[in-house]
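Box S2. Input/output pair 1.
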Amino acid sequence: MRAVVQRVKRARVTVEGQEVGAIGPGLLVFLGVARGDDERDVAYMADKVANLRIFADGEGKMNLSVRDTGGEVLAVSQFTLCGDCRKGRRPSFTEAAPPELARKLYEEFIASLKSYGVKVNTGRFQAEMLVSLENDGPVTMLLDSRRLF
C-alpha cells in the first residue's frame, strides 16, 4: 500500500462538477492498494497517517499529528501510485490490486482512520475526479507499507 500525504490548508474533490468531499486544514491522502496488500497494510498506513507528526507546534517544529491539531483527512483512492515506470514509456499497472480488493482495503483504511478519532472525507472510488488543494508548506510525504522508501 502506498500513499502520498500532503499537509493542506484545504482540499476538495469533485466528480462530474459535483463536490463529493472537502476538508479544511489537515491531510490530503492519495492511497494506492497493491496486489498482496491486506489488513496489516491497512493498519500500518492508518496508524502512520493518523500519527504522522508533520504539523508545527508552538515553536514551529513538526511535532504534531492531524489528531493533535484536530485536522481532517481527505482520502482519495489512486491506483496509479502502484504504477511501474521503470521500463518503456507507458506505466504498467500490473501491481495494482484488482478493484474488488482495492475497494475493500480503501474502505477499511477509512474506517481505521476514523477509529483514531480523525474526521475523514473521501473521493469516489473508481471515478474520474478533479482534486484541488492548497498545499501547506509545501509538505508532502511518501509512505509505503512495505517500507520501500
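Box S3. Input/output pair 2.
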Amino acid sequence: MILHTDVSGEGEPVVFLHTGLQTGETELEIQKEYFNQDNLVILPDLRGHGKSVAEDFTDYFAQTAVDLSETLDDLKIQSAHITGCSLGGLAALMFAKEYPEKTKSLTLSGIMAEKPSNWEELNRFDAENVEKMLEHPDTAAYFDRLHEGNWRELLRLTQEGSWYPFDETADLSMLDMPVLYIVGEQNIHEVRGTITYPKMNPNIHVATIPFAGHAVHLDQPEIYNKILETLLSKVKVGVGNDAMLEESLNDGEQ
C-alpha cells in the first residue's frame, strides 16, 4: 500500500519512521525542521497509523517493508537514507534487509539486539501500563483523532509476547550499507547492542547518548540530529575508511 506521507525540503532523501501509535507529523517535527534545509525529508505514517488506514496487520514488519518500498516508488525515489525508532526502527531494519539497493544508510534506535531474559514480564508490564493509560477518556479520544484506522487492533498485537522480531534484530551481519545504532544510556537492554552489533558487522557504528532513554530523538534531539547529520554528510562524500567515520561520529556526540 502507498503510505500517507509528508514530504518537505530538497536534496538527499531521508525517511524518518515514527514510534508506535504516533505519526510522522506528530512525532518528528524537530527532525523535519532540522533536516529539510538540506534534505528531502519523508515522514510516512506506518501501516495502521494516522491516515495510512489498513485492516491487515499479519506479518506486520514484512508488510511495512513492502509498504515503504511502494511508497518510495510512488515518489519516484530510487534510494534513501532510512531512519527509525522503536516500531519505526524495526520497520526500518526489515526494509533495509529486504531492499538493500534502496537503502543508502540505516539509522536505528529504540530496538534490542537480544531478547531479555525477563521479556514476558517486561512486555506484560508495558501492556498493563497502556491499558491504564487508555482508561482515561481523553487519551483514547486523542488516539481516535490521530488514527483513522483500527489502532486498537494494532495495539493488541503488540501486547502479545511473540510480536517482537528478535530473530531479525539479532542478526545484522548481512547489512552492507553504513549503519548507525543510536541508544540512550538509560535503556540497558538497548545499550547491549552497542557491544554486540559492531562485532558482527564493521559497517555498524554506535553512539550512546547521555540523559536519554528509549526515544533518543525526543529525549536529546539536538545530539541525535548532529550525529545523524554527521553520518549523512560522510555517506554523501563517500567515506571509505571505517575509522574516519567512527571518529567523525564520536566528534558529533561531544
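Caption for Box S3: Strands lie at 5-8, 12-17, 39-44, 80-85, 103-109, 179-184, 204-209. The longest helix spans residues 221-237.
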